[in-house]
Amino acid sequence: MRRLSRHVGINILVAIAMALLVLVGLDVIAAIIDEAGATRNNYHFSDALIYVGTKLPSTIYEYIPFASLIGCLFGLGILATNSEVIVMRASGVSLLRIVFFVIRPVLLFVLLAAAIGEYFSPYLDQLAEGRREYLRKGESALDSSSGLWNHEGREFMHFNAVFPGGVLFGVSRFQFDDDRSLLEASFSSRATYNAAEDIWVEENVSITRFVGNGTQTDKQITRRWDSELTPEVLTLNILPPDSLSISSLYQYINFLDQQSVDNARYKLAFWSKVLQPLVIIGLVLIGISFVFGPLRDSTMGFRIFIGVVVGVSFRIIQDMLGPFSIVFGFPPVLAVLLPVAFCVTLGLYLLRRSG
Fold it and tell me: Which residue among 60, 78, 164, 215 is buried most deeply as judged by most CB within 10 Å?
């Protein structure tokens, strides 16, 4: 039985890996084409390749559920086409045990997705975005069309590029009085966070002070900048919710709750990441049930086509329910659970009929 489990597991593992390679490869080619059209200033085609490569873990994370579905249809379909599944059933191997054989290698991809989403994607995505914006604008003056805006009290700030670990490029700061009149505007080419002293240190600072009807200018090589802004807060602001780790999302959701600020977008991203293992298992159950049920006598090409259709349909439903939960105010966890519950229920129903 162990040898049989290994044989099925290897077939499924290879099939999912091949499906993931194809899906990620197509996405990477499309991303390179898009980035090639956005090259300017110091951002060249080689930099576009580095950008796409740096975001590769996030691309893998995104496609693991669909690769698992297509891989199970392909791998288990090959075994069915070669009559190996019939031999297994005739030898007394139950349908439930075959399902277990298939799900075991899928758990490896579940763990891979969890590791990527928690430890690699947040850092690498921020690095990729920060490097791209730096090469496009670098230490140049304010470009409000992109970058990050932030405000603290009566001060408004803009950063051209934000790197992990607390490194900012192109820092513009504007200080206003109670009447919203501009008091001071400054620009520094770079600011670095000093964790030991909990301060920022700006470099190559140009300062313009508005006094009466005139202005005063000043230049400093370095300047101390006291702010409540931290690298962790910048990461939360610069990255979209679905690029953050589960732990960061959980902490930020609690923080927004304490501030009585709407956090539905972050809750949706949190539950999407927490429940992704169930998403993968649900899609795999659909794939297994199709091979034993409606697609038992179908060709391999048709099975893959159905897998793509089911995967795309599942993604569309997810993308629709998520915004619906935010607009209409029902719990985001339901928006994630409903498609999963449907997949699991349908898969178990078809497997029961096939058994």
Answer: 60
| Distance from the Cα of residue 255 to its chain's centroid | 21
pTM: 0.87
Closest CA to 42 of 30, 33, 34, 51: 51
Dist CA 255 CA 145 (whole Å): 29
Identify the burial level of 261 via C-beta atoms within 10 angstroms of its C-beta, where 0-12 means exposed, 13-18 middle and 19 or more buried: exposed
Task: Give the C-alpha separation, 336 to 85, whole Å.
Answer: 33
Distance between CA atoms of 282 and 342, rounded to whole angstroms? 8
Q: Are residues 94 and 199 in the same domain?
A: no
In a domain, 62, yes or no: yes
Q: Which residues in the chain come in under a pLDDT of 50?
A: none
Residue type, 46: S
Q: Are residues 234 and 315 in the same domain?
A: no
Domain-embedded: residue 140: no
Question: Does residue 142 belong to any structural domain of this protein?
Answer: no
Q: What is the extent of the structural domain holding 318?
A: 2-135+248-354
